[in-house]
Amino acid sequence: MNTYVQAGVSGVMTGGLYAVMALGLSLTWGLLKVINLAHFALILGSAYVTYQVTTSTGADPLLSALIVVPGMFVVGVAIQWVIDRFQVDEFNSLLLSFGLFIIAIQLINNIWSADFRQIEAAENPYATRALFVGDIAFPVPQLIALGTALVLAVVTYYVLRHTYFGRALRALAYDREIAGAYGVDHRRIGMLTAGLAAAMAAVAGVLIGINQAVFPELASEWVGIVFTVVILGGVGNLPGAVAAGILIGLVYSQVSVAWEPLGAPLVVFLLLILALLFRPSGLFGRLGGS
Amino acid sequence: MKLRVPRRNTRAVVAMAFVLVGLAVAGSGASAPKQAPSGDPIVIGSTLSLTGSFGATGVIHKAAGETFVRWINANGGLLGRPVEWKLLNDESDPAKVTALYERLISQDRVDLIMGPYATPNIVAAQSVAERHGYVLPNHTAVLTYALTYGCQFPTWSAGGKPNLSVPQTVFRMLKTQGTPPKRVAFVTNTGGSTNFISYGPPSSNEGGAVDWARKQGFDVVLDLKYPPTVSDWGSIAAQVRAARPDFVWNSGLALDPVNLIQAMEQLNYRPKQFLTLFPAPGPLLGLGDAAEGVLSLTLFEPNGKLLKKMGTKAQTIVRQFAQSAAANGLGYRVFDSQATASWTAWETLAAGVRGARSLDNDQVCEYLQENGVDTTFVGKLRFNPALHNFSRPRNLVKQIQERRWKVVWPPALRVTKVQETAG
Amino acid sequence: MKHRQLAVLLAAVAALAFVPNLQDATGFPVFYLVYAYFVFFWIAQATSWNILSGYTGYFSFGQGAFYGLGVYAAGDLVSREGVNYFLTIPIAGVLGGLLAAGVGALAFRLGSLRGEIFALLTLAVTFTLSAIAQLSTWVDGGQGIPIQIPEYPAFLGEYQDLVYRLGLAVAFLAVLAALLIESSRFGWGLFAIRDEEDVAEELGVPTFRHKMLAITISGTLGALSGAVAALQVGYLTPEGVFNLTVPLLVIVMAVLGGRRHWLGPVIGAIVIYSLQERLTNSGLGEWGEVVLGGILVLMILFAPEGLYERIRDRPRRAAAAGVTLVVATVVAGLIGWGIATDWLSTGLIAATLVLLAGRPPQRTGAHAHRRLAAPRAEGAEGA
Questions:
Q1: ipTM > 0.85?
Q2: FRET partner for B207 with CA separation of 20 to 30 A, picked from A148, A247, B280, C152?
């Protein structure tokens, strides 16, 4: 029994990590109609910068966020500027960002080589730590990730619901022309949103950096599960993404114990198919439950 | 005392000396230790996975190959000619491998080929090599049964049945310990070679390490399989902890053991002993204390004493590899199992050409089949056709002690004894 | 029009089928046949995708499922069950069709099927198949399937001739299907679905049946091509077969070639494969992929409607591109940059750049893709 509980806790925590990765993707997809595959490259790039900063300076790895978050914000703004300038539609945004993804991964490869890069244990106070409640361990890196996911999702939800920026953004998502007629500047709001999404990628990257060794191919491994989190949560629904991440992590871990880790992906993807068929708006609705 | 040499014999001695000098001169002409190679280069073509899922290890083989080519050109080349390596990136995709080898052979008309990295790619390249009758030395094929071509020469000498020889070695070593483990947990990556070693070839009842452990009377308390990409290591670690093994056998690849150990560490759990098969050696060392005592297999480790015994050639190679590895951006620059297998494959090809005195692939193949090859790091290799050209198993066990990999088994080759408890 | 296109297609295929026979006379390297095979492979896959996604507007991320099913059907039946390889090709086709029909029956029955749901559903099916291949020791179980070279009658020539001709046959079948559909009433119905499904329904297009037929044809072709690909891959692993390369590249090829005409995916497959191949062997080394990604970005930005429409709408620019193709190929050949396929690739890349040059077209809402855009009505009630 204890095994199920411990595995469940691990699963939920790990789900938090996938949720952080999903937030920015969900945001631009739901609100800007941009399916940004490059998001995964931004996460990985941030993880590499975290590795580099920590290894070169010996500073606490979390402090790297001070560099990557503003840095990625600028990158996100730049990508959105191009998408806006050329009026790239939703589908072509996927292809455009696929091109950017290829470029970014290869650049990472050229800078850091295809070899594994990992913050040494001596410089990483987080990787192997956990908090204990009785026998049950709450691993620190995943705990931070889950907490971050919750905070980011709740704050974004609040901003979308209760600020002018949020209302303008949602209006844009529903109908750009009408929103424009009411004086909403879609360019600035779009770039700001894309910048925020990229900043979320940066946060995810820092959390990956303290949690595991990185290598260029890693970004491709995330695509399937993170898209699953976004869709199950409801595109554009950030609290939904967190809930979906937790749910997937929970299912994954319980199947892993009850049956076999090898069987877990099959069950998760079958569930995804069922969810797509029966709850096509995601388990928790789209756009923050609007 | 005066040594009197009879006259008759003096003549004989002089004649003998002439012959010897003549032979030496002729010999030096053939192998010319320091004479610069001349003429058209001999082109050796190959692909490696420089990007994609095999990329991290592919780069090690690039560094090893570059070291070899530089070495051989600095030492007279091959048949007196310089060697040139035409290397293409197969992006870890077997479909690309076949296309690129076809191009290297039929279009670029390279003289010889070298195998790519990792079993799927090697098997893919094998079909092209076989169609064109090219010799295919390869460094990293473990799925012995899939290598059916007579002129492929594997240098990862795990024996013809690594699914049996690897557990045999490991459990024999374990039994020599003061308190040998009783409860064994298996955690297996179902991808290719690790799956093979845990469970044996499909559609046969040979079995692998898991069966072996059972037959040897060990209590197999856990037998988990995981996919090549794992989303949650925590749930695996939780099951290992709950099974309370005193020995964890992780048939894992690359980062698997790093992720698993970290997840177990988060649960505040360290098994008494932990073995992993094909790890990325650097990141394991990067775990620091948590990875102390971890066991793995190897063909060769350049441990101080061992390396010293091997002489200056081996030392120079190990040093030059480290430089090449640095130039290729590798973090871990030790000439270990992967580099050894690579180097040995190149040596095999060179020995075949020298032995056959020809670039004719048929003759090179025939020479290697008959004579095997004397290698710098793993001794004499004989290619046994009954075992898909694998030679007798050479399974060394290494252990992380004081943050370095050290050979701990077999007794004849070890630099230190195995530590019985982790950390 | 239709008959002329058919005649040209048949003549081209007949001529291409004869190419391997020239090898003895001209002594060209076998590699050219391998190169051509890959072009055929991508033409078949991109066309298969386009018949479903280009024609109906329902974008699929699931090409990998059809392809992978075909690869594994052939691989398993040959290696595990000892079935004659040539029999496994039609079996793979039937299985691919069945899988596609199954996916279609589930998806197209949904009342409010949005494009993104369909796209993700097809992706989920691919991942599910991959997970099954990992789990099932009959399909694979993780150790991979080495493909034995099948026995075949001697008159089919060398092994590579065989692969070449099989690849050509499947590509021909796919292009023929696309051409015939496009000029038929069925094709007109599909285009109506793409442009405005509700209106199509009003006009009496049996939308469900049309979509089912389109996805089934697409799945069959994808799996047929996969069964042939098994020969070329040589060694199957679940990760190698069910990766994201096939589903993403077919989309890139079809979209950049042009998804409103049967020639679009053909052009896209030739250009993108040549580009990739050229970059692998360019000596650019680690910068090759950066260039590839850069060209993709440029193509999306400057020719989002695809190269085919560029050629059709701008005959003078197309003529200039044609001249560039010839000149660049000849120049590359004269200076001896690489080998013949490289010369041609160089020419193709130069011609593509000529086509792309100039101001981006003024986009109007009409070109925006409907299937993936959220329906307005839904937004209106939320706002």
A1: yes
A2: B280
